[in-house]
């Protein structure tokens, strides 16, 4: 069975060329054939079982090693995320990949300032109680320890060259699906990640000089777990608790 990111596939994908996207507002429907190769039932079952097992080992990590990771792995994972379905195929996302230590420190400083206010009362006791089993606090060392940060922005609307606005549809849903695919790709590539959502996140757009149509969605530190990494002792819901058959 071919694994995720196998050498053969990576060589093929690495040389793949794609057309540049342009807006399609008002364009007529233009169908093209889509006939992917069909897996055998045996291969399909084996692939699904292997994926389920590998994804069950995924954990959110807050203790990162400072060891470097191959940047191309993150670029490929972002490319995977960008294949996500989106409302009207508007692809309303931007991924900012950050390696610069000074920029990471500025993000951490601003995030911790917001987090202190949140943990000192803005979150409310109900939310703080929900967070308590996770062992989180206002100190966010992962923002500087992780070798990379991926800041995901959602594009609320698109601007034509003449400045005309075009609304994007189902933006939250589209970007959420893309982030899920990003986390999956990172995990299957051997990296750990965390979805960090400081509230409010307006500072990210200002700090990273993003245009007015973009709104920060999540900050995702990425790297290897630290040697002394620990995670909360949590239990996932069983398949019987999340699946209903009709």
Structure description:
With 246 residues, the chain is an alpha+beta fold. The chain has helices spanning 7-14, 41-56, 71-81, 101-122, 125-131, 142-145, 171-188, 202-207, 239-242, and strands at residues 93-98, 148-155, 157-159, 165-167, 192-193, 214-223. The strands form 2 sheets. A 4-stranded antiparallel beta sheet has the order 1-2-6-5. Strands 3-4 form a two-stranded antiparallel sheet. Strand 3 and strand 4 (165-167) form a beta hairpin. Helix 3 runs antiparallel to helix 7 (171-188). Keywords: Flavoprotein, FMN, Oxidoreductase. Residues 57-224 form the Nitroreductase domain. This is Oxidoreductase. Residues 1-35 are annotated as: Disordered.
Question: Nutshell version of this structure?
Answer:
The chain is built from 9 helices and 6 strands.
